[in-house]
Design goal:
Largest sheet: 2 strands, antiparallel
Order of helices and strands: HHEE
Strand content: under 5%
Helix content: over 70%
Strand order of the largest sheet: 1-2
Number of helices: 2
Shape: rod-shaped
Radius of gyration: 35 Å
Length: 168
């Protein structure tokens, strides 16, 4: 069995501190990702609610456009049928806006179903494994490294030919 050939105990302490900072940064990044995922899902839900309100407004516009068209279809005093082109165009536009808003509502509902599944498939597994690594394996590894560094420091104190800052 070969020795560790440690040239600098302070360098090991620096490396241990850098790994601890890395762990903290990655854990904060995972928390930030989770928050952004939640915000994204909430945004889709908010958009669905906005489009649902738009559907109600569009339904009212369709009812109003139909009423205007119906009112315009009666013959005038001279017995001639009035031109209903404008009212028909307004009704087509109102129906198109209603269809568009309805499509957006359906899209939002579909994404609220699909999005969690997509997140689970593409991110959650890897993110959870990384979180477990940070919280379990890396913490244990840092503890083992700390004990080994302490052992090296005690060993260095016993040896007169070795200083903690490097070899003499």
């Amino acid at each position: 069995m070969q020795g560790a050939d440690v040239a600098s105990i302070p360098a090991l302490r620096d490396w241990q501190a850098a790994v601890a900072v890395y762990r903290t940064n990655v854990a904060e990044s995972l928390a930030g990702i989770a928050m952004e995922i939640r915000r994204g899902i909430d945004w889709v839900a908010e958009q669905g609610a906005l489009w649902q309100r738009a559907v109600r407004v569009c339904e009212e516009e369709v009812v109003q456009a139909k009423a205007e068209l119906t009112a315009r279809k009666f013959p005038g005093f001279d017995g001639r049928m009035p031109d209903t082109t404008v009212q028909e165009r307004n009704l087509r536009r109102a129906k198109a806006r209603l269809e568009h808003a309805g499509e957006r509502v359906r899209n939002c509902k579909a994404w609220l179903i699909k999005l969690p599944k997509q997140i689970e498939e593409s991110y959650a597994g890897a993110g959870n494994r990384l979180g477990l690594f940070l919280d379990a394996d890396l913490v244990r590894g840092l503890a083992v490294l700390d004990r080994r560094i302490e052992s090296l420091e005690r060993y260095a104190e016993l040896r007169t030919d070795f200083s903690a800052g490097g070899q003499s």
